[in-house]
Design a protein that fits this description.
The protein folds into 2 domains: 109 residues, no CATH class; 142 residues. By secondary structure, it is mainly α. α2 packs antiparallel against α3 and α7 runs antiparallel to α8. It is built from 10 helices and no strands.
Length: 257
């Protein structure tokens, strides 16, 4: 539902900036209504709804990525200068929710009405969601300062989005396939904390400079993002290594008489 809502809101600045015309908005609005209906059907276990919801999410991801995360007249930097930073945050949020919708469709195809509950992974999921929000907020502030190191704003923001997608997909997948989910979390969080160290510790803009330029709140967001990413990275590695260590320990146990 969130993917439909965010995509629908994005139609307003798209039309206002003349990136699209009224006919595009009408057609897109109808597609979003179909998307919403397909999500409801998917929730009820309909394979047709699952297929349609995942397909529209995939197409929406491609349209947003191609239209605003590549060098173009309406790339995310130019777009944010015209319509405001909130539009950049909106675009960066649309891609992860569309990716999660498509992933959920893939998983639900084999388990249309299945539910997987693993309460032990809920804290990791909560941390991942909070961390993802912090990454997007930090990327929004970096876009305002045009502070992505040697990368251009389109590549820098897309890298942030990619890390969020890996982090969230891993967090949602970990209850189903523990090792795969842990590896995805490790990859996503590695991008986050490594970029932080490269851009704000080793070189680039220091945290004190961010505090001076953007304010203490944004500096705190950057620090909290890096801390959660590092903690999640360590936790993910521990979840990967623990079964291997336990298996080795079991094989070394002496056999009974």
């Amino acid at each position: 539902m969130l993917s439909v809502a965010l995509s629908a809101v994005n139609l307003v600045p798209e039309l206002r900036s003349t990136n699209v015309d009224i006919y595009y908005v009408v057609v897109a609005g109808l597609i979003y209504l179909i998307w919403l209906a397909s999500l409801v059907l998917a929730w009820r276990g309909s394979r047709g709804g699952i297929l349609l919801a995942g397909l529209i999410a995939f197409v929406e991801f491609g349209v947003i990525a191609a239209g605003h995360f590549t060098t173009s007249p309406f790339d995310i930097h130019v777009y944010s200068l015209r319509e405001g930073l909130w539009v950049a945050a909106l675009l960066m949020a649309i891609l992860p929710v569309c990716a999660l919708t498509a992933m959920a469709a893939i998983v639900s195809w084999s388990h249309p009405t299945g539910r997987i509950r693993n309460p032990r992974m809920i804290p990791l999921l909560v941390v991942s969601v909070i961390g993802a929000i912090l990454v997007l907020l930090n990327a929004t502030d970096s876009l305002r300062r045009v502070d992505f190191g040697t990368a251009n704003p389109e590549d820098g923001t897309f890298a942030a989005v990619a890390s969020v997608i890996l982090w969230l997909v891993g967090a949602f997948w970990i209850a189903r396939v523990r090792r795969v989910g842990s590896i995805l979390i490790a990859l996503g969080t590695f991008i986050v904390w490594y970029s932080f160290i490269t851009l704000h510790v080793v070189s680039g803009t220091s945290i004190s400079a961010i505090a001076s330029n953007s304010g203490p709140v944004w500096a705190g967001i950057a620090l909290a993002m890096a801390a959660l990413a590092a903690a999640s990275f360590i936790a993910a590695l521990a979840l990967v290594v623990e079964p291997l260590v336990r298996r080795q320990s079991d094989t070394r146990l002496p056999s009974g008489p």
